[in-house]
Amino acid sequence: MTTAAPTFTPRRTGGIRAVCLDVDDTLVDYSTSSRAALVAMAGNADAWTLWQRITDEHCARLLAGELEYESMRNIRTRAFFAALGEELDQDEATRRELRRQEVLASGWRLFPDVVPCLEWLRATGLPVAAVSNASGRHQRAKIAMLGLAQYFDTVLIAGEVGAAKPDRVIFDTACADLGVDVEDAVHVGDRLHADAIGARDAGLKGVWLNREGPREGALPTGVAAISSLSELPELLVCELAATSA
């Protein structure tokens, strides 16, 4: 069911004039599909933390221009298995990586709160950007396959921009594409430091989507938290009301 549109018109100065959204594990349940893909490739998900670390290292090298996108995945797969004590030749690395990609893509799913939130945002007339730390073309394919493209006015992918969150360059680029100043935009994502704190430090309003629920301790100054995208409309309405007062 689509959430009803609110009865406000965004101000042209001040307040929230645009919304940026992370993609993986904010809109798309990426971790579940990625863990399943790792099991298909490696036989189990016990090395999930290792896989994430090696992925982060190789994506950083990609952004730095040290690797080409077409070869990065195989190089990463060989590095992963080498860390587990297994040396793969190029053909075997390709075979395993293709299997991983097949399982990964077949498991992509939107969280249930995503479409109602995006429909609500569209009804407000606020421009919306996807801001992703993904490294390549597969992210645009994923966005299209899951029917998300229709909701975005612009899509920023780290591998294309040459900067990844929390680097302010990707936030600045998103706001420029949307035609708003950074202080008039909000960014929502599942990673506290890369998304919420990174956005705050870049001048946006940072919102941490913590689907695991409340945590102990205070939130960092200038960061809001929600546990579901169903809470975002109320948060934005309250922000608009506060800045319009």
Automatic annotation (TrEMBL):
InterPro entries membership: HAD-like_hydrolase, HAD-like_sf, HAD-SF_hydro_IA, HAD_sf
UniProt feature coiled coil, ranges: none
Matches recorded under Pfam families: Hydrolase (PF00702)
Catalytic activity, EC: 3.1.3.-
Sorted UniProt keywords: Hydrolase, Magnesium
GO molecular function, one term: hydrolase activity
SUPFAM superfamilies tied to this protein: HAD-like (SSF56784)
Name under which the protein is recorded: HAD family hydrolase
UniProt entry tagged with the keyword Endoplasmic reticulum: no
Cofactor(s) the protein requires to work: Mg(2+)
